[in-house]
Amino acid sequence: MLSPAAICVAPNQLLEIDDVTVEGPQAGEVLVEIVASGLCHTDLTALEGINASSVYPLIPGHEGAGRVVEVGAGVATLARGDHVIPLYGPECGECSMCRSKRTNLCWTIKPTRDHGVMPDGSSRFRRGQEPVHHFMGTSTLSRYTVVPEIALAKIRKDAPLDKVCLFGCGVTTGVGAALTHIRPGDNVAVFGLGGIGVNIIQGARIAGAARIIGIDISRSKTELARSYGMTDFLVPGEDVPDPVIAIRDLTGGGVDVAFECTGVLKVMRQSLDCCVPAWGKSVLLGVEPAGSELSFPPVQVRYGKSILGSYFGGVKGRSELPALIDRFMAGEIDVDRQITHRLTLAQVNEGFELMRSGRSVRSVVMFE
Ligand code: CXF
Ligand code: ZN
Fold first, then answer.
1. Is residue 88 part of a domain?
2. Percentage of the chain surpassing pLDDT 90?
3. Which of 26, 106, 192, 294 could disulfide-link 261, Cβ–Cβ 3.0 to 4.6 Å?
4. How many CB atoms lie within 10 A of CB 107?
């Protein structure tokens, strides 16, 4: 079938909006009609040519929601009409990682996913005769996309797809990381108030954090962050000379948990330094420039601080995401206030420009 899609032909070029041919689902695959797709910074890294798992031309997008149109041979857990969220991190349920309670990572199809193809090594997208690659195994900026069954979370049908698409990345990553790492009464710092940071803030409030300190070089997201539960806000260099000293002063020695959402090495170091000695946790979510290394005094870790990371908020996509959607439907998690723009597919380049300039939190491309 033909499907309108955003195509990134090569890095640093505008996305082309064109019809692509989408082949039917092969064994273990599912054809999905995307209803809405949020734009995430990781898509931008593919457009800028700094995402190592991008093979061009590609169709970006990994924060979508839609409906099942057709299932391939052997697909037993999904049927036409089901509502789904594509998962860039699948859950096969059978590998050692899936069977472990220690991680939500599943690397069953990582090698093919990171080369822009389905698990059989081929793409389901073509423009004319030329293959177009998948991106993150999801390619949600196409009206129709093909996704492996193990990379689709089935969700309740009364959840609004034009909102819960954000659970495909930003909301789950932020809220999930907060719920995993924060205990009631903890003091928390969040470095970087973008699409992930604001969701860590609302997750921190839900988790019962005491002080929730936001740190950013821009004041543009402070109103939203405060509405989500941020208690203190610092612009380094303007409000305070050194955010680490300011955080220690505000908390009487350091935060219990610091979340790093910028990917800047200096900020990663600050997120470790601002933690309370003996048990403070620095949780890294921001993606560093390729090849970079982080240095810190080992004594901080020897005395009890830890430095760790979080992928998709630690949430196992197929088995655990539906419960998070329930919490949204119950009014516990907000999505509306972070959707700053709704766009048509034809406006997708404007959406990425809004992201670059910091004027948006989340833009959502609407297919219907
Ligand atoms: C990213 C986070 C870092 C690893 C790859 C996926 N998540 C979504 O944008
Ligand atoms: Zn993302």
1. yes
2. 100
3. 192
4. 16
Number of structural domains in the chain: 2
Ligand 1 atom nearest to 42, measured from its CA: 9
For ligand 2, the distance from its centroid to the CA atom of residue 45, given in whole angstroms, is 10
277 Cα distance to chain centroid: 30
Mutate to test the pocket of ligand 1, among 45, 113, 136 (most ligand atoms within 8 A of CB): 136
Q: Say how many Å lie between the CA of residue 170 and the centre of ligand 2.
A: 6
Ligand 1 atom 1: residue of nearest CA: 42
Supply the pLDDT for residue 186.
99
Looking at the structure, do residues 20 and 112 belong to the same domain, yes or no?
yes
The pair of structure tokens assigned to 94 is 């059978």
pLDDT attached to residue 3: 98
Shared domain check, 50 and 180: no
Q: Are residues 185 and 162 in the same domain?
A: no
Residue 363 pLDDT class (50, 70, 90 cuts): very high
299 and 228 housed in the same domain: yes
**Amino acid found at 5:** A
Tell me the average pLDDT of the chain. Answer: 98
The token pair at 180 is 């995993």
Q: Does residue 48 lie within any of the structural domains?
A: yes
Domain-embedded: residue 323: no
Sheet holding 2-7, edge to edge: 2-7, 16-22, 125-127, 130-132
